[in-house]
User: Fold these one by one.
Assistant:
Number 1:
Amino acid sequence: LFDQRSLAIISRIISPSAPWSSVWCAPNTQTYVVLTTSATVAASTIHNLLTGCQNIVENHIATVGDGLLSDGVFDYLSDATGVSFQAWNANNHQTTWGVLGAALAALVDCMGINGYGAASFTIYDGDNLVGLGRVGSTVSG
């Protein structure tokens, strides 16, 4: 068994309040994200934002089909919290709705295990960097 001092050190190391980085694969896809957190935001706020975005993406694919993001951008602002999610094309490649959905699944999975927070991320589809984004930015004013 660990003594109390060991547990205190471990809890500080894995605390989501400290910035962290990770590479995370979306299950059953070639999509993965590389993310770096920058600030602690209430877990429920970020989780609800990401799952809300997932619902929008799934609905779009179900009703319109997969395809390129309109104007190469997906931007969602939660009116309730003032917290936003943005993703956009990168590296002269284009992000599709399906890849965005897989990236969102990877973000939810990764943050669910490692801790929620404001973050910036890159989206890869196989070997190709196809998108950039950020989650948890607050809108002031």
Number 2:
Amino acid sequence: MIDGDDEASDLDQAGASSENEVPDSVELQSSGEERILSNVNNEGGLQEAFDILPILKEESFLKAFPEERKARALLEFCAEGDVGAILDLVKGGEDEDDDFSMDGSDKAEGAAKPIDVLRYQDPTGSLDTGLHVAIRNGQEEAVWLLLLLASSLELHRFPPDVIQAAETLGAVREDQVGKVDVRVLENAEHMTATDLAQKLGGKWEAWTAAGRLKHVWDGIVPVIF
């Protein structure tokens, strides 16, 4: 949805509504959240009362900030747990017209600072990183990959099968000196990845108990006032 280079929208891909379908309606929920409901057809058949507002917002955002499309694609891949797509995006390097990078370094002197996709935070409200998104959606393989590529978690703390799979896929950890460890980044709720994992519990209880998601400076966890 986010990663396409053409101008076709998700609504186009979903298919136009037929003449017999009810017209779009705007609904304001008791929570104050607005929805735009529409009946749409796609490969899965008719979807009634489908909320198209998130799609419209996403398309509007990408029209205003097209340089962020790949960073937002990474968030989507993290939600899906598509480690192959994540790695392909990271290994793909920089396109000539794209203001993004893997390490936040400038492409040219005087140029605007490019987007570090591995540490990108969703500016549309949540400020989630890909790590937050992967945890929220229960995608352990994506979490391991992000820790390998964007954290300083010691390699000996990765399971052997994870390291072997990463080597097979061609995932290589770059020098993390001077780079922000993705585990320290907070979302709009002031939650780091480990905070979110503790809140969700379940499969993440073992992760938080092992301390993999918590970044430690010189053995001391900093207290931020």
Number 3:
Amino acid sequence: MATVHLSTIEPPTITAGKYQPFPFLDLPPEIRNSIYTLLLTHNTPICARYSHVLSCPFPVGLNLHPAILGVSRQLHKEAAPILYGQNRFQAHPTWLTDVTFALDPAQPITSARCVAQMRRFHLRVRVDCDPYYGPEALVKAFSGMDEFEVEVFRASYGIGDHHILEAFKGIRGVKKARVHGSVEREFASWLEKCMESEGVTLEECGNEIREVLGYSGNRNTYDMWTLGNR
């Protein structure tokens, strides 16, 4: 069998004017946006590394093609809001939106310009220990988002209460809020309603949740700091 050396293979001859670039920017904006959506969005489900600790999701590969943003300034201007605005990002369990990532915590997104375009967030919240953030930080980070998902968990069954989650009731204007996990459905529905509302005051929210859960401020829950976490 004869051996063919790569050095002897000549590249094909391209006749001038035969190959013209595709006039992508001449397409209607609706078609271009559909193409951007196919290239820059994903529906990869979020899978927590461990269900009982505050850890990041498993890093997985995302079938995204962000290189199109580097073609030209106009394409970057058109496509960046789709990449950052239509995908769901993970908010850091401590620093919230100051350190975000898609599904790989080893590749965080720290650019303020990119974070400002993000409209969908997922946050894991542990209710059996005090958080590092307060109500003001939550309001600043998540009010007005298109989508905000709060995944609630605890290290052991029966430990913790709604005290941590009540800090979220000041968030307003979320188009689609979802609260799930280790939390009562009545409380989750109330918190979702608070975050999706526009003009409900904190006092009204506080009075309503007392009616929903039937308590007047004295929680008869397990005190892990006094009795331990077992």
Number 4:
Amino acid sequence: MTGTIIITGANGSLAVPAIQHLLNQQPNCTLIGTVRNASDSDANTNTLRDTLSHFPSTKSSIREVDLSSLPSVHSFASSIASEISSGTLPPLTAIICNAYYWNLNKPLETTKDGYEKTFQVSHLAHVALVLRLLGNFGPSGGRIVLFSSDAIWPGKNGLQKYPPAIPDNIEQLAKPAADDPVDVFGRGFLRYANSKLAIVMWMYALNRALEKDPQLNKITAVAINPGNLSDSRALRTNTPSMLYYLSIFVIRPLRPVLRFMDPTMRTAAEAGADVIALATNEAFPSERGYFTMLKKDESSPDSLDEEKQRQLWTKSAEWAGVGSGDTALKAL
């Protein structure tokens, strides 16, 4: 494989071992990893640099992109398109939309673009990136990998206090009212779950649009629930101290036992290998849809509501600032 693969949140818990797996398997690919902070002051980015240093013959670069700023995302997409057009980069073969955000410690946060932060970083930024770059895949197509979670199912995740749902007034996804009553943890997790639900619903709408487009119908989109990752930094980032200690002293050391109760409990490296198998079309080539780990699966009933999928498709492009002239996709 000689094409370009983009992965967002490239210094994340899943992304770093995924990149290592990718470069071991596909040393001829061109890798672009985006991070929020590309400076040496970021320990996670330094870990990513160290990983890349073990593959000196691979073409790779780290790009700083702030997903909480839509102008930053659009600027990055324009740069990538220009580099592919000029031949500096080979055509895309995959975009792995790995980055996400949550905050279970603070009330609702709004970006400078005016959108709820979890929803923008996890969903809208990737909508802008994907739609802007669809015309930069090669003639053989490629794959869009989006990320889901068991949080899209009511009652399935132990952290859930409120069931996920796309509100009837869909504007409330991007611009919700202040939390009332104030329940920082519960409402924060709900925003995370709703962003993941929106991602899955948008994936279905994206696939319908791609299938109808003769120039782009070889690009397939999948959404993967990568599992509950015992060594992820997620439970130690923007979370109450009890989750931090639970992660360190219970989940990580007891993973083999917990796996009997939750078959999706595994390491980030295991999940990363599955993500790369999907991204490179090694697994389920040319298929579309929802996956739990590396098993083709059915997503939650709410995510299958086609009317709300259509509404979300239209509004997501609008919120992301992508018009018909900004994408190669005809059915926008």
